[in-house]
Amino acid sequence: MSGWLWLFTAAAQQIPNSDFEEWTYHEGRFLNRSYHQPAYWTTGNSALETIPGIEPPTRKSADAHSGNAAVLLVTTKVLGQVAPGNIFLGSFKLNITRPVSGIKLGKPFADKPGGFSIWYKYHPESGDSCILSVYLCRRNKITKKREVLGGGKFVSATKQDEYVKATINITYDSIYTPDSIIAVFCSSAGYKGEQAVGSEGSMLWIDDFELHYEPLTILKDDNPSLELYPNPASEYIYIPKELHNGSPVELTAINGQRFMLSLTHTNNNWKSDISGIPPGYYQVIFNTQRQRKVGRLCITR
Questions:
Q1: What would the pLDDT profile of 154-199 be if each residue is shown by its tens digit?
Q2: Is the domain of 280 the same as that of 151?
């Protein structure tokens, strides 16, 4: 067998405080209850500073899978409305008339995990179900709107008395690299419009959240299927016009670094300037008129 094969894992970017060990304590005043808030993550607990007498739906728990702390999410009722215990990446500002409108989802993130895992146990009430979800997004520079590039979720209505590990694949519909990540974990999964649907008393414990990265294969053989030239290249690459739709080309280096190449039309080809890309072997991904193609490119100087 001729050629070379590289297997590597891209830089494994993780979310801060994924083990949920770091918390800050917020002392209650008068009729307002005290609560804990996990570092880096956001919850609906700040509503306790405005609405007196309610118990925190997101709580610090000593019943951990590992370490000294985990998250306990409890579905409660606030002003007569179901309020699932939740923890997410983003920000929250209470809006009593439209609670969902106060949630802003997402944190800056620039990687493409292949999946995630989290340890959990669950005590549902009256047929309730929990949800564990992660989505990768990117702001469209043309529409100025955020688009979901890929995601994965886990929903369960099964009572689970001991911690078990849920492992979920993330599937992508785009070759673009994300610029933000959304992670949402809730003790009740249902929504009807902007109103949460669930059963008061449902409890979800979570701990040790982790993003997974698949080894990436770069193949250098004598008969590459990817039709770009020259290969090796140093200044420019060309793709026949009839084999491509003009969308950007994604390069991934052996160390996991990614580059997006824009294309310009010249004669019967698409052309891209690679003079600013470091020398080395790269995995190349682009969309042809009929399919998504993956191959390799060698850049030399």
A1: 999 999 999 999 999 999 887 778 999 999 999 999 765 456 678 9
A2: no
Cα-Cα-Cα-Cα dihedral sign, residues 125, 41, 12, 207:
negative
Instruction: Give the total number of structural domains in the chain.
Output: 2
177 in the same domain as 128: yes
CA distance 57 to 85: 4
Q: What's the CA gap between 207 and 205, in Å, rounded?
A: 7
Within 10 angstroms of residue 145's Cβ, the number of other Cβ atoms is 8
Q: Are 92 and 207 in contact (CB under 8 A)?
A: no
Q: Which helix (H) or strand (E) holds 265?
A: strand 264-266
Of 54, 92, 55, 58, the C-alpha closest to 73 is: 58
Has residue 73 been placed in a domain? Answer: yes
Task: Compute the mean pLDDT over every residue in the chain, rounded to the nearest whole number.
Answer: 83
Instruction: Give the chain's radius of gyration (CA, Å).
Output: 24
pTM, two decimals, is 0.69
Expressed as residue numbers, the domain containing 67 is 23-212
